[in-house]
Write a structure and sequence with these properties.
Blueprint (H helix, E strand, L loop, with lengths): L1 E5 L5 H9 L7 E5 L20 E8 L10 H16 L4 E4 L3 E4 L2 E11 L2 E8 L25 H22 L2 H10 L6 E5 L5 E9 L5 E5 L4 E4 L3 E4 L1
Parallel strand pairs: 1-2
Antiparallel strand pairs: 2-3, 3-7, 4-5, 5-6, 6-7, 8-9, 8-12, 9-10, 10-11
Length: 234
């Protein structure tokens, strides 16, 4: 494991993607004290005020690994467990890998692939939550974890992620799925889903399937399995 810190980056994901072709190895973490062009899912801008954690890491896919998209759940569980160390009992996961405290977003993640390399980017609000137009945000400091900083949080997170990644490789998705369900919104939680084709569904959270897809109970009594989309808890 190697952790590098730079004062400023346009995007730590972009920086690690650039290092992939040079043979960068799994376990590399890059943290920027400030990002000027951070990105979230669905090409959203990720606001990056100073004092928060902006980092990316590299996973090199190996023969026999579970399906790469399930790394989204691995990342969610790892970040949630790191947050639990400083803010026990307050955070939960929203599918697939947002971390919330109450209705407010604490952390978001972005996975990008090139060849056998997966780059996982993580933004975690430690000191100052960014202002987003479509959802509430919060920070660790807002909930009393004022002794936490980006350096210590990344050290904890890197160790936890390595353990969860090893578990995923050794035992498959099932134990990660179990941990995810323990940490996530409860069955029956009302959800609105914006799907990639532009349609919108409302229903109640039922479960994750064996691949990590979201299972939604609809009002007409049917179930819908969602593999991609933007999820809002109601």
């Amino acid at each position: 494991m190697e952790i590098r810190t730079v004062a400023q980056s346009v995007s730590t994901n972009a920086d690690i993607l650039a290092l992939v072709a040079d043979g960068a190895t799994e376990g590399l973490w890059l943290r920027a004290e400030m990002q000027t062009g951070g990105r979230g899912r669905l090409d959203r801008v990720w606001e990056s005020p100073p004092g928060n954690l902006y980092c990316s890491t590299l996973i090199r896919l190996q023969p026999g690994d579970p399906p790469p998209p399930t790394l989204a759940l691995v990342a969610a569980v790892a970040v949630w467990q790191a947050v639990e160390m400083v803010l026990p009992g307050k955070a939960r996961i929203k599918w697939p890998n947002d971390i919330l405290v109450g209705p407010a977003k604490l952390s978001g993640m972005l996975l990008e692939r090139t060849g056998d390399a997966i780059v996982l980017g993580i933004g975690l609000n430690i000191m100052a939550p960014p202002v987003l137009p479509d959802r509430a945000t919060t920070s660790l400091w807002a909930h009393g974890a004022v002794d936490t900083d980006a350096t210590s949080m990344l050290s904890t997170l890197a160790e936890i992620f390595a353990a969860r990644l090893s578990q995923w490789r050794t035992y498959g998705l099932d134990p990660i799925r179990t941990l995810w369900l323990k940490a996530a919104h409860a069955p029956g939680t009302a959800i609105r889903a914006h799907l990639p084709d532009g349609t919108e569904l409302s229903g109640h959270f039922a479960d994750l399937d064996a691949s990590g897809a979201l299972i939604l109970d609809l009002a007409d009594g049917t179930r819908r399995t969602i593999h991609a989309g933007d999820i809002f808890l109601l």
